[in-house]
Design goal:
135 residues, alpha/beta, Nucleotidyltransferase, domain 5, 41% helix
């Protein structure tokens, strides 16, 4: 099965209250979606946590799928593809978590997309609505 995943992480304060969201499609239909608070985090940590949440759910519910994970975070995509080194300690931990989840899937490809991509905009809205509701 081929899965298209769209993720977003949001932080107000950087670090501050943070939320994540993701959408998982099979190419035709929405299979899963989630938006939730993750506590206090930086924006980059939230982006990683969104990817980790999505990869973890995909590996549990749709094992051995081919995944294309889309994110508007240049840092996330370039670190997970190995183009950039991970220097910050907390991001190294999150990077290892994300990479370890790849073993439950057939393949994972990370793609950077614009913030204006319709599915990224939807994920962004979900994360920000979650933050708004937590006030």
């Amino acid at each position: 099965m081929k899965l298209l995943i769209f993720t977003d992480g949001a932080s107000r304060g950087n670090p501050g209250k943070a939320a994540i969201s993701f959408l998982i499609y099979d190419g035709k239909s929405l299979l899963d979606r989630e938006a939730r608070m993750i506590g206090i985090a930086t924006n980059n940590e939230a982006e990683y946590m969104a990817a980790i949440g999505a990869l973890g759910l995909a590996a549990r519910k749709h094992p051995l799928s081919d995944v294309i994970l889309h994110s508007d975070s240049t840092l996330l995509v370039n670190q997970l593809t190995g183009k950039w080194k991970v220097k910050e300690k907390r991001l190294k931990e999150l990077h290892l978590m994300a990479k370890s989840l790849e073993s439950g899937l057939s393949s994972v490809k990370y793609v950077h997309v614009s913030r204006t991509h319709p599915m990224i905009r939807r994920a962004d809205l979900m994360a920000n609505q979650t933050l708004d509701a937590a006030k």
